[in-house]
Amino acid sequence: MRTFGFLLTTAITIALIWALNNPNIAGPGAPAMGKFFDPYNGFWQNAESTSRFKDQNLNIAGLRDKVEVYYDDRLVPHIYAKNNEDLLFMQGYITASNRLWQMEIQTHNAAGRICEVAGEKALKADRMSRRIGLGYGAENSKAFIEKDPESNDLIRAYCAGVNAYIKTLKPKDYPIEYKLLGYGPEEWTPLKVALLLKNMANMLSIYEFDIENTNFVSKYGEDQFHYLYPERDSFSDFIIPRGTKWDFAMDSTVKTSADTADKRDRISNIDHDLESYNQVIEKPKELNGSNNWAVSGSKTKSGKPLLCNDPHLQLNLPSIWYEMHLVSPDMNAYGATLPGAPCVISGFNDSIAWGVTNGGRDVRDWFKITFKDDSHDEYLVDGKWEKIQRRIEHIKIKGGKEFLDTVLYTRYGPIVFDKSFGDVKSKQYLAMKWTAHQGSNEFKTFYLLNKGKNYDNYIEALTNYNCPTQNFVFACRNGDIAIKEQGLTPLSKMFVTDGSHSENDWQSFIPTANNPTIKNPERGFVSSANQFPVDESYPYPVTHVGIYEDTRAMRINQLLGIPDKLDAEYMKKMQSDNYNVQASLTLPTLLRVIDRSKLKGEELDALQKLDKWDYLDKKDSKETVYYEEWNTMLQDMLWDEMADPTLPMKKPNVFRTAYFLMQDSTSAFYDNLQTGEHETREMIVLQSFDKAMSKLKDKYGSLANIKDWGTHKATMVHHISPALDAFSRMDVYCGGNRGIVNATSHEHGPSWRMIVDFGDMKAYCLYPGGQSGNPGSKYYDNMIDKWANGEYYVAKFEAKEKIEKEKLYKITANQ
Amino acid sequence: MRFISAVVTVIILCAILENFLPWWCIAPVAFVVSYLFRLKWYSAFLSGFLALFLLWGGMAFLIDRANEQILSNRISMLILKSSKPLVIVAITGVIGGLVAGLGGLAGSFLIKKK
């Protein structure tokens, strides 16, 4: 009996331990519960004390000299090193100690390695990352950087710092996400630094709609295309002010291929059959934008320049940015860094300040490939057969077998969709050419900016910058302000091109010196907000990609154009400005043409409230809810012609739509394809209003009960992992929306706000997150509320003694 | 008295060994202690359970206080879909308690009847 009892209880004990020591037992995706709850090794080890901070003395192999790090009361590290290699080494070490999991998962994402940690469900996304050649581009960048010994040494120092931190870790110290997913960190490498920049390129330099445009023309013809997607909007407020004289002509060595000379030729040259294509790369919503501007001393109260930047990206925890202060004998830089890459990306030092917005240039084209036969070994170029290169991607899958994916590479680049990936129509093979595939050294730009002293240093730094195209705004303590759109810009195409003629290939790039730029303009400020960069006099063609939006730029330039002297307080109000330019353009037309006799009760009431609305997307406004819901519904119903899943097309942007509604009362596009009737503008306006109000009534019971805009919009800052609502901040109450200077929509918004005032050398900044990437830290999301209220922290850009005195704690590191 | 000594011994041994061994070392520790202390089956289970409930639950409780329940709240939202941080502390104690309790119970069956 006792033997039986012994065997039974031992077996039960072992079974219980087994169940608690393995993942997925408590449910799919669940961690090993015993390991996870064990307070000695599991998640409890990530629960940081909120009040106890101890100074640390570290001995780290790889350092040359002593480095001191002071964390301030917001956990911003101020790093003091005696040389730049030690400085970047420690930047790597400190960043990793706060953001390790995030750094790694972002590079895994770019490299198409999410399957390794999340299993087979990520296979499609992983294959996509690989098939668009992000890893291929990162390898090219790594090789390119290796040719520049200084950059190479500095990047290696950064990596060594990250790895020195990883070496100190035992499994109990791993960030909690590793414990949840059951894996551990791997070595950090220069390739990962390159992957991180390609990840940015993939977020920001993918604005081309060649396939969508080709589809549109094949269905609706050229005239409608030029009408709905005009090259330049006549009312645009360009980055380089209209009428600015260029001090150069088109470089005589720049060859424009036949089809860039005239846009009409472009279409007819390219695809005689005007085919349509059923596969496109899904584009992010048109929300990734940004604002930046600099005001000259002639327009400021202090007489010294002001510079502002707020890049709009998806809002995530841990935040895409990590705030740092980096000091060495020849550097004193402060600002937002990208965890995993060295130097400050948007920031300032004691002489200059800089910030970025997305240029959004078309730097990607699609070439139709003609194969010799079904073996796909050779393809046609200029009457000869060229050999295909095969790149085999090894995708490891957690809990499964390795997946091998063969990607065909042409002289242009990879063939993204084929029979094995995407359901391409027969023989429609398109090769992608993209500047992000080329090797480049963006690191050097930021390194030189971090050390920069003046305008010449800024221009010199930018020459190294290729992708993604950015508008770099600049201000110098000596009074100079400038802006330059910088990136490697080909004379690219708007349609799918025949790859069997090499003359269709990119013939040239715009020389860096001729990229649009302006220094100390007469109006006393420079600005950019993702609008079209230049007027008709610019010597090079600019491919319109249909995403340039001018609403924020119009408002910013209006606010900066006032005669009063400006100060940092005014800049703060500007970054939180909620004026809805798009509504101010669109709504008067809608209110004029809507048939009020068809409305009664609550609906009529809502409409009458809109009559008096001030066009402000304030958090406590209910009118905003009426307008935004109506506008969304209207855009969907109006452009239903472009919503065919078998024939992907791009909807005209909201800015273009505003003018379309204003100026065109008879277009065939007003027709709703779902109905037998023929709809007119007036009908679509009324129907969309009705539908939007019904939607609100379904949600809130009656229009009287609707919540205000801040509650309705429910901005969220979500953990990088879509599954982890519990590590996210939902329902952040704030105003703004897309297309507005305060571009805070449901899950996008100003990911970093910075104001630099050279008058008193003060900077105001913050981002919607916290310095710690650990959900068990009080510094994980502590800046979100201030951010939502449009408040700021003053950056502790002070003398070392003052920072030391006010420190939270200190790390002293020696070799 | 023997019961309390067993509980204290398990707590001390586990607190030391957890620093070097995997988390489930708590089961063999309770197994050996209940055998050496010649506990009856019910006190063997109870002593193991109580020891680890106190050790894991107590440690979680102290960490949780210093952390002002920031992480336990998030784990609670993750696992229980509601904010019950103290339940997370209790679950920690129960998991440790069950494993050690069963280990102790198994050990008690090794003792030969007199």
Please write out the topology:
The complex is a heterodimer of chains A (815) and B (114).
Chain A lengths: L1 H19 L12 H5 L18 E4 L7 E5 L5 E4 L3 H28 L3 H4 L4 H9 L2 H13 L2 H19 L8 H6 L8 H15 L5 H19 L29 H4 L1 H8 L19 E6 L10 E9 L1 E2 L4 E7 L2 E7 L6 E5 L3 E7 L5 E6 L8 E4 L2 E4 L1 E7 L7 E7 L19 E6 L7 H10 L3 H8 L7 E7 L4 E6 L10 E2 L18 E3 L5 E4 L22 H10 L7 H8 L5 H13 L7 H11 L11 H16 L15 H10 L17 H20 L8 H5 L1 E5 L9 E4 L15 E3 L2 E5 L4 E5 L17 H5 L4 E2 L5 H6 L3 E6 L1
Parallel strand pairs in A: 1-28, 3-7, 6-22, 11-19
Antiparallel strand pairs in A: 2-3, 2-28, 4-5, 4-21, 5-24, 5-25, 7-8, 8-9, 9-10, 10-17, 11-16, 12-13, 14-15, 17-18, 18-20, 22-23, 25-26, 26-27
Chain B lengths: L1 H16 L8 H11 L4 H26 L3 H10 L5 H24 L6
Helix pairs in contact in B: 1-2, 1-3, 2-3, 2-5, 3-5, 4-5
Gist?
Chain A has 815 residues and is an alpha+beta fold. Chain A is 33% helix and 17% strand.
What does this protein look like?
- The complex is a heterodimer of chains A (815) and B (114).
- Chain A is built from 24 helices and 28 strands.
- Chain B is mainly alpha-helical.
- Chain B has helices at 2-17, 26-36, 41-66, 70-79, 85-108.
- In chain B, helix 2 (26-36) packs across helix 5 and helix 4 crosses helix 5 (85-108).
- The relative contact order of chain B is 0.20.
- At the A-B interface, helix 1 and helix 2 of A face helix 3, helix 4 and helix 5 of B.
